[in-house]
Design goal:
The longest helix has 30 residues. Helices cover 23% and strands 15% of the residues. The protein is built from 10 helices and 15 strands. By secondary structure, the chain is of the alpha/beta class.
Length: 465
């Protein structure tokens, strides 16, 4: 005897078989081997299962319909439009409609009242990209809707508001994963999301090409919700990974926050998850401490702090953030110097850094700071993208005012404006030492010549005991 478990398994197997059969119906009905060069309409009626299969449209015999047809299969529909109201009203016994492949781009009307028995509609492999409002409102028996491999970019959920509808197939469409696609994560009773039978197969189109739609839209929805806690504009820039139901590794998301020109006096204390790019240009920020103390900044690798009030980056010395940042822009602040050796050490250990912007700051050009800073700029010219615009502070009376720091000579850096470089004490000492060296060499040569000629030793040698 069969147990209740056996009946349960048998029932599940039967349901799965029905769905698989539905999924492969188009392949069974529209055999491309039956195509000919002749594109005129041709139909074939199977009496045993009341199935009418037509290629390139309905021929004259069937254009007026028939009460005997329960399944209508239209293969390679030759027109760009299909009018359900006109075409189907003479098929009162119709239970299943299949439109497979062809040039179809638009349905021009709703399904007629004369077809209340339709339980399944399959429109696949066409260029259809939009459904009319209330197209299925008269199909009170509709249970399965297959719209795979069409050209749908966005879905209007109101078109699927049919109480009898149980299963919807949408994979193979170039669906756009935007804020308008949150229907796919709506788990409320009766929602379209709960009716989609191939949800795990839905994929996004650009810019998240090939990424699982359900997971990407969840990320977008979460980002939008968390963004309301800030004064910033938020955008999901990129998603890495394929995801999927059976893949353990989750997707990696990269979000960008634009908090520029928001009159902020300090860096935000909260950032949405997955924030990797943060723009804080044009505010009144002067403290970078949150980069080292707030865990929300752990994932931020691109930071724009242009046109703020930053006077020092000493807070970042020895922090883990400078060891992993990718881009740091400090243009237009109030920096006069920075911990050169600490920054150089961080850049040596940071394999991610690709861009550093330091221009439009009032850099101090003196013999104490500038030589080391200049060495850093020369060594990391490819990293400091605006190196030609890193200039000395425009100070009145300073000969180096506004000059490019990388191109300064050491004499220009370390000589005071009121000093005469020709009378510098070090230069005078060097001249004296050089003169003495030449004098000693000359005396040695003279003594050698005198000894060879007279045989007498130099006076000072003769006096030495």
């Amino acid at each position: 005897m069969r147990t209740m478990f056996d009946y349960f398994v048998l029932m599940l197997f039967t349901l799965s078989s029905v769905e698989l059969s539905s999924a492969s119906t188009n392949k069974e009905n529209c055999d491309s081997s039956q195509l000919t060069l002749n594109t005129s309409a041709k139909c074939d009626f199977k009496e045993h299962d009341h199935r009418l299969v037509c290629f390139h449209g309905l021929d004259d015999k069937w254009i007026t319909g028939s009460e005997n047809v329960q399944t209508l299969v239209l293969c390679y529909w030759s027109l760009e439009t299909f009018d359900p109201q006109y075409t189907l009203q003479t098929f009162p016994s119709l239970r299943k409609l299949v439109i497979s492949n062809g040039n179809l781009t638009k349905l021009t009307s709703s399904f007629p009242l004369q077809t209340p028995l339709i339980e399944e509609v399959n429109i696949t492999g066409t260029r259809l990209q939009k459904l009319p409002v209330e197209i299925f409102v008269n199909l009170t028996s509709l249970k399965t809707l297959d719209l795979r491999n069409n050209n749908f970019g966005e879905i209007d959920v109101t078109a699927f508001n049919v109480s009898s509808l149980r299963r919807v197939y949408l994979s193979g469409n170039p669906l756009r994963c935007t804020e308008n696609a949150t229907w796919v994560v709506d788990q409320e009773k009766g929602s379209l999301s709960r009716k989609i039978a191939d949800k795990d197969s839905l994929r996004c189109t650009a810019p998240y090409e090939g990424r699982p739609m359900f997971q990407v839209v969840e990320i977008i929805k979460t980002l939008k919700k968390e963004c309301t806690k800030t004064v910033c504009d938020c955008e999901l820039v990129y998603v890495v990974g394929q995801g999927g139901k059976h893949i353990q590794r989750p997707l990696m998301a990269f979000a960008s926050l634009n908090c520029s020109h928001r009159d902020l006096t300090e860096m935000p204390s909260f950032l949405p998850a997955n924030t990797t790019t943060l723009r804080l240009t044009g505010n009144k920020i002067n403290d970078l401490t949150p980069l080292t103390t707030n865990s929300a900044y752990r994932g931020v690798i691109e930071l724009y702090l242009d046109d703020n009030l930053i006077e020092s980056i000493v807070q970042l010395e020895g922090s883990s953030w400078v060891d992993r940042f990718r881009l740091l822009s400090l243009r237009g602040n109030k920096l006069t110097d920075l911990p050169t050796y600490a920054l150089e050490n961080a850049l040596q250990h940071n394999g991610n850094a690709v861009s550093l912007y330091l221009a439009d700051n009032p850099w101090r050009c003196d013999c104490l700071f500038t030589p080391g800073f200049q060495d850093l700029l020369i060594r990391y010219t490819s990293l400091v993208k605006d190196v030609n615009d890193v200039r000395c502070s425009p100070t009145n009376g300073d000969e180096n005012s506004g000059k490019t720091i990388r191109d300064l000579t050491r004499t220009e850096i370390c000589t005071s404006p009121d000093e005469d470089p020709f009378l510098h004490p070090l230069d005078v000492l060097n001249i004296i030492l050089a003169s003495l060296i030449f004098l000693i060499i000359g005396k040695l040569l003279y003594d050698y010549w005198s000894f060879k000629k007279t045989g007498q030793l130099p006076w000072i040698v003769a006096k030495i005991p």
